[in-house]
Amino acid sequence: MKVTPITLALTLSFPLWANNSAPSIMQANDLLLTTVQNKLSLDAAINEYLISEKLDGIRAFWDGKGFVTRSGNKLNAPDWFTQHFPTIPLDGELWAGRGGFQHVARTVLDTQPDDDSWLSVSFMVYDTPTPNMAFSQRYDMLHESITALNHPHIQVIEQFKVKDLNELEKALDETTDAGGEGLMIHHEDNLYQLGRSEQLLKLKHYQDAEAKVVGYEEGKGKYTGMMGAIWVVTSDNIRFKIGTGFKDIERQSPPKIGTTVNFRYNGLTDSGIPRFARYVRVRNNPDI
Fold first, then answer.
1. Listed residue (151, 198, 238) closest to 39, CA to CA
2. Largest Cα–Cα distance in the chain?
3. Coil, strand, or helix at residue 112?
4. I need a surface site. Which of 60, 223, 225, 231 has the fewest CB within 10 A?
């Protein structure tokens, strides 16, 4: 089988015991993405994987009665939103469509739910902690039961298959071109488990990470009188500046010193500095 020179970013999951009150299913975090090329093991068995779009929302766990975040914080959804939801635990994402992250973050993290804002939010389910059942079986079960509910605010994330890396690359391009973040690849035989798994992968055209704001650089030209770039430092003490990805309003009122920000990049220089770093958002809330 031919291997295409596609550059993909993959990430694994690992447990983070930061909040003992959180359900164990939600005590997971992500490793930073690692760029790889020509992933032969993927190409050799790609037809054994189920693929879905990676949604840019707020990770949520439905325990049969209510929502909690990945760090164990309760989410206050309106009663009408969860009415007739299944009583089984569900793992998923509260989502407001492509490009809707800021809306969903403002909406679902509010102490007092705003009915109008919640109208555009959906709970997108991608798994359930059913023991001794393969992922493909869990998906089929969820798809059948949740589709039968015909509930406007809960759906199962669609899973599909590809035959090779060429087709995978095409699906990634189409998703990205349409405004999506990337793809999730999940082996069809996976059991639900915490811990690292080489069978659960996240694919993007870029990598992302976090850094702390330590300074500013004044803007020039049309950005005169505004912030031109922020200086940041990573947890590995790598210092660099980010000058793209900002809206004008963010340049007029940039992230404060000490703020943690998300950024995207494409590989590293020989000095370990992220290439083509661009700002995404402030990230001081562990559930964002």
1. 198
2. 61
3. coil
4. 225
- 232's enclosing H/E stretch is strand 227-233
Query: Of the candidates 51, 157, 56, which has an alpha carbon nearest to the alpha carbon of residue 97?
Result: 56
Residue with tokens 């009583």: 87
**pLDDT tier for residue 151 given thresholds of 50, 70 and 90:** very high
Q: Are 278 and 246 in contact (CB under 8 A)?
A: no
Active-site annotation holder among 2, 54, 74, 256: 54
Q: What is the pTM of this model?
A: 0.76
Buried b / exposed e across 182-217, counting CB within 10 Å, b at 16+? bbbbbbbebebeeeeeebbbbbbbbbbbebebeebe
Question: Which of helix, strand or coil describes residue 41?
Answer: helix
First to last CA, the chain: 40
Average pLDDT, the chain: 83
Question: Looking at residue 252, what DSSP letter applies?
Answer: H
Are the C-beta atoms of 107 and 90 separated by less than 8 Å? no
- Which phi-psi region, left, alpha or beta, contains residue 243 (left: φ > 0; alpha: ψ -120 to 50)? alpha
Q: Residue holding tokens 């915490």? A: 194
φ and ψ of 40, to 5 deg: -60, -40
Closest to 61 in 3D by CA, of 91, 36, 41, 20? 91
pLDDT digits (tens, 9 = 90+) for 241-266: 999 999 999 999 999 999 999 999 98
| Residue 54 bears catalytic tag | yes
- Indicate the pairing of strand 58-62 with strand 90-95: antiparallel
- H helices present in 127-209, as ranges: 135-149, 165-177
